[in-house]
Amino acid sequence: MTRVAIIGAGAAGCFCAARLRELAPEMAVDVYEAGNRALAKVAITGGGRCNLTNTFAEIRSLSEAYPRGEKLMRRLLKAFSQEDARAWFEAAGVPLTDRDAPCIFPASQDAMDIVRALLRGMSGATLHTGKRLESLTPGWTLHFADGTDATADAVVVTTGGAPKGLPFLDGLGLAMVPPVPSLFTFTIQDAGLRALMGLVVPAAVSLPGTGFRAEGPLLITDWGLSGPATLKLSSYAARHLAEKDYHAPLAVNWLAMPEIVVREQFQDLARQHPQKQLSSTPLSPLPGRLWALLLNRAGLREDLRWAELGSKGLNRLVAVLTADSYAIEGKSRFRDEFVTCGGVALSNIDLNTLECKSLPGLYFAGEVLDIDAITGGFNLQAAWSTGDAVARALAKS
Ligand SMILES: Cc1cc2nc3c(=O)[nH]c(=O)nc-3n(C[C@H](O)[C@H](O)[C@H](O)COP(=O)(O)OP(=O)(O)OC[C@H]3O[C@@H](n4cnc5c(N)ncnc54)[C@H](O)[C@@H]3O)c2cc1C
Prior knowledge:
The chain is α+β, with helices and mostly antiparallel strands and 397 residues long. It has helices spanning 11-23, 62-65, 70-79, 82-91, 111-121, 191-194, 227-236, 238-243, 259-272, 288-297, 310-323, 378-396; strands spanning 3-7, 28-33, 53-54, 96-97, 103-106, 126-129, 133-137, 141-144, 149-151, 154-157, 176-182, 184-187, 200-206, 213-220, 224-226, 247-253, 324-329, 331-333, 339-344, 362-364. The strands form five sheets. The protein has a seven-stranded antiparallel sheet. Strands 6-2-1-10-20 form a five-stranded parallel sheet, covered by helices on one side. The protein has a three-stranded antiparallel sheet with strand order 3-5-4. Helix 1 runs parallel beside helix 5 (111-121), helix 3 crosses helix 12 and helix 9 (259-272) packs across helix 11 (310-323). It starts with a strand and ends with a helix.
């Protein structure tokens, strides 16, 4: 009988085990988990609600969702898509809701329903907890931190994002992409900005001199900037920001509009309301408090009238609205979702089976691979799609 060892009882490992039970029930499946229970992280995903996938309706190009691993995900989603994930969990007894579309959650809003469905799906596989893999000998023998060994015909590594690297793969000659954090918020020491803490505005943020740019709701916090636009930018520029030690200039376009459009809108305002004070005519949808801050940053008096603005004043105002500059002075961890960019390089693996090209019988799935996504359910979708790909490949072999 073929014996498969899955290392790591997280989203990818447990889903792979469940799919193996469906596709190849004759195989013996052992799941080895370092912690004392399976799926501990899944239980806290999405603030305990588990945003298990996304409709992808707002994604124009897959690279927007997967800054790393886009090509592989394009291929894997054809075989196991977001619709397949939804259908699988519903068939496993978890009704889902698209009330927060494009994000998909269990209708119960309880991540434990996802945990329980995966554990039910895995039944027949043997879960071994407290088993931290320390090293692997091709062939395959697994050596655990507690001094015990186990053997298997195939090994699936699903140990998740590894901020400190993957020591048990040392010596196997695999190419690795150095791990760096993704999905973090920016520390910005700006008293004016921080005074607006709690404000959310639709905006675009970018790193001047690079192509990194993201759009979406921007949340002003007491430490700087957060919200979907910031998190997306942190994901797109994860490696660049790590190289800069999280110190970089940041440009904010407070209207997420091209400069020319903003300029025209101001010229219209000046024509229509020449005698009105700037402070009383903010551009929609800018909140009044933010408008006051931006006038101040442009060096314009609040009681100035549109007729008095002049072309220099207009230029300053347009510049502040479309390319307001701040300095990122550090990162802070995002409260709800945090992933690692980097891991096992995709060049090591066959993109159809996720099997290691140089070491047959060794497979990878989930965040241990150099695949990661922005927030919104895309990371768990990657765990489902990669877990499924490995299970199908093993079932065929
Ligand atoms: C707080 C939080 C909230 C999140 N919310 C969401 C969300 O709502 N939607 C979304 O799409 N993504 C979310 N994510 C990201 C998502 O949880 C991960 O991308 C996903 O869990 C990765 O799955 P995985 O199986 O690859 O790794 P993991 O789920 O991390 O599982 C890896 C498992 O391997 C075990 N392990 C590690 N090393 C060893 C070893 N040497 N030997 C044996 N076992 C080992 C670990 O203990 C762990 O159980 C969130 C992440 C966090 C931290």
